[in-house]
User: What shape does this take?
Amino acid sequence: MQTPVSPASSATLRLSNSSFPENSPKLSTTNAAMPQSNAIPPNAKTIFPSCTLPLLLTCATLMVWPATKALAQPTRPTMLVSAGTTLYRVSGEQSQTVETYTGQTEQVKAMTVIPPGVAVANCQPGDVIAFSALSNGAVWRVNNARSGAVTLTQIGTIPNLFVSSAVFTQGKLYVLAGSVNRWELNTQTFARVPPARALFANVVDGIGGMAVSPSNRWYFLFGNDSLSYMNDPPTLGTDVQITAAVGVNVDSCGLEWYGTELWAGILTTVSDELRVGPLNLTTGAFTNVRTVATGITTSPSVGFVAISPPPPPCDDIDFNNNTVFPEDADVIDFFNVLAGGPCSPGNTCNDIDFNNNSVFPEDADVIDFFNILAGGNCP
Assistant: This one.
């Protein structure tokens, strides 16, 4: 469950019982007013000590039940994967829908997500940035990475480097250059921040995969089909091979950490297919969850990023689905269902997870309900 809002910072709601029809359920903070099977649990919390609403509502305290399920990251991310100048978006749904965006100005080689708390020029946390396969090529912000038409906006220039992969970790942006050296880049100018750190003694064929786990372990996927890691800080000669063969013939690839898994976009050398899926961290085996494209015979650069799918929108304000809205009955039904009661006779109410974030009941559902009721947007 999300962290409770403090009374000092919350906008509290009270409902006057006189606002409701005589035979409607009443809201109260006492057990007697709740349905017999829904006595207030000891860890329920009071929210909204004061409020103003443009309805018949004047105020009483609402009790919110503890969440019955935790917010879980979707098991399949939305993915962007490139093959040369073509970008593909693979949806995070079970259907794994593929959208294609051709004709980018340069080959896209590396992509990664800006984490919270990191300031990147002309970007926001959660944005995807991408790097050209060319030395002195472009750095782009990927517009509409999660939904809508994908486009690229140049935000900088690569400082005389051939970038194989890029990753944010510990608040910094690192790139693998020429498959040998790791460079930190300034997140405002994209200039190199000396010194470089040599990770490999020789150019590794086809490397394009570099990712860092939440425990700061660095993973690398090679064109010789091997998966390895280094503990932080990554140092020359400390790589540990997980497997010499991930199960597909790797031509070019990209890696990204997502949740508790390492995901990859791989162009295969035998079947000439662009595939996406997770890698087993114990065996190194690659599981193909979607073949994105086939017949790719030109060995283009491959970039890959795994991102959280777009959040589902809030429910509409017709909570009881009687096609009349906005109305007092929607508010009455919302709080009755929140308190464990039934929907009004003859109607079918929505569930109480109003903002569809898989956490319920919670303060945010109530806040978002009234935000939408007042004409606002789902956050």
Q: What stands out?
A: Residues 1-74 have pLDDT under 50 and may be disordered. Helices lie at 328-338, 363-373. The CA atoms of residues 165 and 360 lie 39 Å apart. The chain has two domains: 1-37+314-379, 78-307.
